[in-house]
């Protein structure tokens, strides 16, 4: 019995979780970085597909929650980025008024 496509999907999802954990552990990423959140989101999607195909329904619930948390992380990252842009724009306007 060889590996099927679904087994590779599950392996890829698990590896994405591990890569995100490893890069965060060594300080390459932070727990708030976009790449960390995207790795977790894609890993959760792949692991959910794998678990569904294997009939591991408890695992599906865990991975759906993991994915929801990752989605919230991505939206939080987007909100922080937009806020920083607004602050920079306000700072530039204030600086321009001082020069005028």
Question: Layout of SSEs?
Answer:
Blueprint: H1 5-25, H2 34-54, H3 57-99
Helix pairs in contact: 1-2, 2-3
Short summary:
The chain is mainly alpha-helical and 100 residues long. Helix content is 85%, strand content 0%. It has one domain.
What does this structure look like?
- By secondary structure, the chain is mainly α.
- It has one domain (5-99).
- The chain is built from three helices and no strands.
- The protein has helices at 5-25, 34-54, 57-99.
- The N and C termini lie far apart (76 Å).
The residue ranges in which pLDDT falls below 50 over 5 or more consecutive positions are: none
Largest sheet: none
Our estimate of the beta-strand percent is under 5%
Could you report the average pLDDT, rounded to the nearest whole number? 90
Tell me which oligomeric state these chains represent. single chain
Order of helices and strands: HHH
Give the number of helices: 3
Judged by helices, strands and strand pairing, the structural class is: mainly alpha
Q: Supply Rg.
A: 19 Å
Q: How many individual β-strands?
A: 0
N- to C-terminal distance? 76 Å
Integer count of domains: 1
**Proportion of residues in helical segments:** over 70%
Globular, elongated, flat, extended or rod-shaped: what is the shape?
elongated
């Amino acid at each position: 019995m060889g590996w099927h496509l679904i087994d590779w999907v599950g392996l890829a999802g698990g590896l994405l979780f591990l890569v995100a954990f490893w890069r965060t552990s060594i300080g390459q990423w932070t727990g708030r970085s976009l790449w960390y959140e995207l790795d977790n989101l894609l890993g959760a999607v792949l692991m959910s597909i794998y678990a569904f195909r294997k009939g591991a329904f408890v695992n599906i619930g865990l991975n759906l929650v993991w994915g929801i948390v990752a989605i919230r992380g991505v939206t939080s990252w987007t909100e922080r980025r937009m806020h920083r842009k607004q602050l920079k724009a306000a700072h530039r306007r204030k600086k321009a008024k001082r020069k005028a």
